[in-house]
Amino acid sequence: MTKTTKIEKKLWQFVCSVKLAVIIIIILAVACILGTLILQMRPPEDYVSRYGEGLAKLFSAIQFTDIFHSYWFAFLLVLLCVNLGCCTIKRWRNTVLQIGFLITHISIILTLIGCFIDLQFGEKGGVNVYEGKSVDYYLNRADYRKIPLDFQVYCDDFIIEKHPPKFRLVAFVKNKDLQKVIPVKVDKKINIPGSNYAVTVKDYYQDAEYRQEPINESNEPNNPAIYVQMLDSNHVTAEGWLLAKDRNWYNDSKRDLKVEYLWADNDEDYERLAKTVGKSANPKLDITIEGKNIHKSMPVEEGKSISIDGTDYVVEIKQLALDYANRASPLREQSLDNPAVSVEITGPQGVETRWTFSKYPDYWDKAHQAKYKDIKLTCSIPDDFSDAANRLKIVQNKGGKQTLSYLNDGNLISIIDWEIDKSYEIDETGLQMRIVKYFPSHSTKKEVVERSDNHEGHNHAPGEHAGTPAILVEIEGPRGRVADWMLANNPPKWYPDKNFALLYEQSGMVVKDYKSILRVVDGGKTVMTKTIEVNDPLKYKGYVFYQSSYDPEGEKYTGLQVTRNPGLAVVYSGFILLCVGVVFIFYVKPFLRRKLKKGQKVEDYYSDDEIAAEHIE
Fold first, then answer.
1. Fewer CB in 10 Å around end: N or C, the chain?
2. 41-100 pLDDT, tens per residue?
3. CA separation for the pair 561, 549 (Å, rounded)
């Protein structure tokens, strides 16, 4: 035997070795454990913040940040396939009784090949689709790159099914750090264990609301207010209360108009308020760099940019929108419904564009993957902000002076005295204004009423409710009895000693199921429509679209998980063959053995080689 032949024989023995298979399987098991302990497919900054810069670089170099798609993991799978294949060839004897052995080994090899194909060539990602909109891409899970699709996926509708709401009454005793859920039963007194408090539900409304009635408490101008009507050809277009010390403004975006009610405590302030233009507080953007203790603020002016000292970031204001849904319209035509600011961030990884919302600071971050996660943006846009060209200032003071100032594009046009229940033309707008009421000390009278016209039968044990339920609770404690109405999901009701509180809140899961009606358009034609939900995806051209999430606030978009598994058919083939092999080994092979032992003609079942092999066993 030559030296080359000996080396080949040793190599063959090594590749066929059961020990090699055991070693590979142990390494794969350890790799799987590491894949669950170490963060997988996350941005580099996440590894630095969690493991430190040194370990983060090491994990990246040896592909521990994406173990299941690493080259060494794929190599182990290939090596295990080769080992199983060689073992199968070495131990195979051409007998009918070994068919099960052959099939099971081939099934395992096919399963491993399918896994290898999926890990190396499969794709996984996600995308959010708004109702009535479409996407022709998805974001790769590993690096959030846009992966194009050669077709479009429309979300025609998004449906959320909800459980009937249930509510609970929770009591809290502060000095004992005690919390207890109280059964809501009308006219049953419940003593709170370990305390000197007791609660009785005296009444119950299935669907209630607060009714508020404006009242005047005194003739002293403690909280001046006026009731204003805006008219167009004697038709009321808007009306409501303006409070000098609270909500003292009204914006009419369609007519480019802002109305303000201003109170002056003395003559000097009165002259200043009536004759000067005055400006609303300006919107502001706040920038925070996490981990570096950097905070910056800048006025929101389109085109204005700022460089963040100590970083490579440049932040530029791209657009201010008073109503995000109507952001394409001129600013003066937008009402102050959902204000937001568009920002462009330039840094080491390129340019990122974000919207930040004044009322919903986390909205954009929840719906999109940020490139620069250490940058947090918040914007503040005052409720009275307006860029209106026409401004009407209703000014009043203690001495009885009351004037109406009209300004256009920052210029004072006219000043006239105003009277109750008299109409005044507003130049350039085509509107009239009338002040209907004046309350020197405005207040509101609140009461809880049942929405339904039928007030009978409300005194019953609460079950599952529709609308906003309310309960009338009576609390007994060290300072006597107090009673008041509580509406569900409103702030807690505190007893006068501030040590005992009740909270009437919704409990249990609200969302029962969520579904999306998806439509696939390929080549300009609708090729399929399907309603998907959890575990019932849409499949098209090898891609699978799973229902994975939804918009928790506006409920206007659906979150889809997108996968493509080219090795799945190979894996399924392996599973089927495995079942066939197991059936053969446990049922067919014993049957053939019994036939052989009964002395039937062996020639009917086996060849000479098969008989010899059987006797050797």
1. N
2. 777 777 888 888 888 889 888 888 888 888 899 899 899 999 888 988 888 787 888 888
3. 8
